[in-house]
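Quick one: structure tokens for this chain, please?
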Amino acid sequence: MRMRYLSAFLCLGMLIAGCSGGGSKLESDSGSASTGTAGTFKVALLTPGPVSDSGWSAMAYKGLEAIKTSMGAEVANQEATGTKIRDAMRSYARDGYQLVFGHGYEYNEPGVEVAKDFPKTVFVSSSGGMTATNAGAFRFYLEQGFYLCGYLAGLSTKSGVVAMIGGDDVPSIRSTFKGFRAGAEAAKPGIKVIEVFTGNGQDVAAAKNATLKAIDQGADFVIHQANAAAQGVFNACKERNVWAFGANENQNANESGMVIASAVIQAEKPFVKLATLVKDGTYKGEVTLMGMQDGAIEFVLNESLKDKLSPEAIVKVEAVRAEIQSGKLTVPKDEF
């Protein structure tokens, strides 16, 4: 009799397992179960820092959210740097993500490498020059915005010294600094432009110390490419009463009260355009450049601080902006 009860119990267990699929649920990067269904368009974003940084990573997250809202896509994101980049890319590809976007130059080479093993997934980085059939780069012409920041700094500096504070030393950041330097030198020939890299886009204290040292050398306008560490730049500028520029996101409302203008990437439309190509199956591995003419780059003056600038400087900056938008002026950038 006991054997008959045991047999019935085992049969019941097998029936329950069959109804439930007999497997464990898939886990997303955030640790929650994936809710995607067959046929769902899936897009993942990898960033070098938190999407709450009010700058580089936050800007990309806005693009990801635009894809979710306008296309009904299932989206996911996570921080991934160094050796974790390839693992994250492979994980998303195995989970059926059709587009994996790496936000930075450092994601270009890994994306092209991993793409060979996952032909049904497109890997795109927001900088870089390497491509494959299903991999490429999506470059924002941020140098245009940086040029205008540099031009305004050159027109407005009293010390004749301005500074650029970078976190990670990568070609894409150096190229934006090239744009800032060109703008500053166009406005004020002979201007001294200090360039410093801390080596870490997350280290707020290092960014602050680097900025203070630049200010000690006479800098009275400072721009950054420091990702989450940008707050250290702004804190130093507030401490020494020196003007700062925002980068990537519109950072004019920063609590420091020292951001005079921002060089901004408008990521939403470019991200959606890219995702549409991937979803339609028409994406081709290439390097796409998006600038002011495409509505992807903007230079935004801080309206609450405009009275700190001379009216003549504002007029001149607007004239240069018009030249860039019309194509009359080509802002220098590095090729990489």
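The radius of gyration is 24 Å.
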